[in-house]
Structures are given as C-alpha cells and as structure tokens.
Specification:
two-stranded antiparallel sheet; 347 residues; elongated; 12 helices; 2 domains; TIM Barrel; 33% helix; alpha/beta; Type Iii Antifreeze Protein Isoform Hplc 12
Length: 347
C-alpha cells in the first residue's frame, strides 16, 4: 500500500496519523497550527473528516436522533455534526499546508459528494469511519477511485468486515487496510483487544492497524507489538480549547511521546534471529565454563572438588563435566587454569 510518499507494508515503519476531526474548534487558524504541531510531534499524516451536518444526518429531535450514553449526551446528531464539521472551503488550504509541512493529507468522506470533492483535491487515500462500515454503496464508491482504502472496525461484526472487504474487491481494489477500533469516547483500555490486530491480518491477509480512542500511549505501543502498521490518534493543540473530541485527543507533547514509544517498540521487536551480535558474543565472557579450582598433580583424578563450573566463560563448556569426572589429567594443573579436553586422559 502506498499512501502519498509513504509505503505501508509488513516490513515498513508504522504509519502514524494525527486525526484533526473537530479539534479546530471552528477556527481555520487553529486548524493550520494543529497541522504544524502534528508535524513537530512526529506524525506521518494528518487526516480530516469531510461532511456537513446535512450530508450525514437530518435535523430532527425525535428520540432516534438524540445521543445517549456518550460524552455528547442530550445533543441531537445534527447539532453535534454542525459543531464538529470541517468547512469544505478550508480543505484546499489545509491540504496545501500539510504538503508544505511534508505530511500526507487525506480524509474520511461520509457520502459520494465528499468523495467527489476530495478527488478534486487529489486525496491520496480514503478512510472509512467505523460507523460507515455498513454503508456498502459508499465503500464501493470510495473503492472505485482506485486509491488505498483504510477501514475502521469499531462497530463491526465479522460479517460487516467481510461485506466491506468484498465491496472493495468487487470494485477491483485490493489496496485495503483494517484498523482495530473501540468506538467509545474515550475508550476503556480493557476493551482495546489488541490481539485482534494480529488476528485480522492473518484472517483477511491485509495490512492492519489501530484507530485509538484510549488515553495515553499504552495501546498504540501494544498494537505495534501485535503487528499494527497504521496508528491513528486524535490530535489537539490544547484540550482547554474544548470541542466535541477534546477529552480523548492527544496534545503535541503527548503525541510526540507516543511516537517515540512506538518507534522504540519497533526497534525492540526486531526479527527472529538466533545469531549473536558482537555485544552478545562479548557477554559470553561472563557465562559459565569449567575451571580448575584446586591444584591437580599430573595423573590426578578429576573430581567435583577440583574442577567446577564457574564464571568466566573462557574454559571448557560445562556440558563436558560429567564426561570428565573420574578421569585422570595428563599434566599438572594449577588453581584458576581453564579446563580443556586435551588435559584429560581418556584411556
């Protein structure tokens, strides 16, 4: 998968996305400064959400449209999205700022008009938000553009995932990644279930990653250890500016610390390799080996009292101890001498 200048595969570094979402709080200047801060914090990409309240829902106060059980309790959907959306007239400016900063820039479209709009901006990829995974016509339309499609699975059953993948494949697009996501805001860490990152990669043979709403860096680091190749986190200049997503978004310092932790985790994972590095070989000096610990005269018998397995590791391998016990030595050996098989009379 190639997203802008970034290659994403099973051997590439984790592709780290800062999600702007509603964290501009209605200010273009704040949005621009957020992009610049994301670059300073080590993000590889900045992502937006492209919708209006009218393209995503209707203005209704009927019970179905009232939000319950979340941080947005009591609002209707229209009110939330009216507050949270990123004005479309900002997009071109924001894409240009991201390009100047060296960030990949793309978005989550929520209807066909948003896809068409983003196509005109040459968006290099598309993200399907968790709640849109059941919108098969939208996924088909996105996939038909031939760009990489990154799909969040926050509310998805196994059937939902398979239907979404099939929709992409029907359009001839196999450039698809799945992100494990917990659609709670903020999400409880005990519901992160990061083993799914590895399972989805093996089950569906796609690149997998994490769209994270937990607090802190623990879950991103764990996801890296399970093979995540994409990590997305909501990013904000300062939580005190408020806004719909402020409470579960990372500041520049927090995001930078997460990036550092993820990069260190990548280094720590390494590769399967039983060969020793030069440092590890040097460490063998401190291992055990067989040494003479009490003077032995020529012809004397090797016993557990005069030959022992001790540090350092320059002598005979300890595996030979039982073989040489009870045998005679061919020469006199002093306390502290390295034991060697050539000193043992095997006749």
């Amino acid at each position: 998968m190639q997203v802008g200048n970034s290659k994403i595969d099973r051997t590439s570094p984790v592709f780290i996305i800062a999600e702007l979402s509603a964290n501009h709080n209605g200010s273009l200047e704040t949005a621009i400064e957020t992009i610049k801060a994301a670059k300073r914090a080590g993000a590889d990409a900045i992502k937006f959400q492209t919708y209006t309240a009218d393209t995503i829902t209707i203005d209704s106060d009927k019970e179905d449209f009232i939000i319950k059980g979340t941080i947005w309790e009591g609002k209707n959907l229209y009110q939330l999205y009216q507050e949270a959306y990123t004005p479309w007239e900002w997009h071109e400016t924001l894409f240009n700022v991201a390009k100047e900063e060296g960030l990949v820039c793309f978005s989550s479209p929520f209807d066909k008009t948003a896809v068409d709009f983003l196509e005109n901006l040459n968006a290099p990829a598309y993200k399907i938000a968790s709640f849109e995974i059941t919108d098969i016509p939208l996924i088909e339309y996105v996939a038909s553009k031939g760009k990489p499609v990154i799909i969040s699975t926050g509310i998805a059953t196994q059937e939902d995932i398979e239907l979404a993948l099939d929709a992409c494949y029907r359009m001839g697009n196999r450039d698809v990644a799945l992100l494990k996501c917990t659609s709670s805001y903020p999400a409880p860490i005990e519901e992160a279930n990061m083993v799914m990152v590895k399972d989805m990669a093996e089950r569906y043979r796609v690149i997998t990653g994490l769209s994270d709403h937990t607090m802190g860096s623990t879950v991103p680091v764990v996801s890296t250890c399970f093979g995540a190749k994409i990590i997305e986190k909501h990013f904000i200049l300062d939580r005190t500016i408020g806004g719909p997503d402020a409470s579960f978004s990372m500041t520049e310092l927090e995001f930078a610390e997460m990036v550092k932790a993820v990069r260190e985790a990548e280094k720590a994972i390494g590769v399967v390799n039983y060969n020793l590095t030069e440092k590890q070989k040097k460490g063998k000096d401190f291992s055990r080996s067989l040494y003479v610990v009490k003077d032995i005269n020529e012809g004397g018998v090797i016993t557990e009292e005069n030959v022992r397995s001790i540090r350092p590791g320059f002598g005979l391998h300890p595996k030979h101890l039982t073989d040489i016990l009870g045998k005679k030595v061919t020469k006199s050996l002093e306390n502290g001498a390295r034991m060697d098989l050539s000193f043992v009379n095997n006749k």
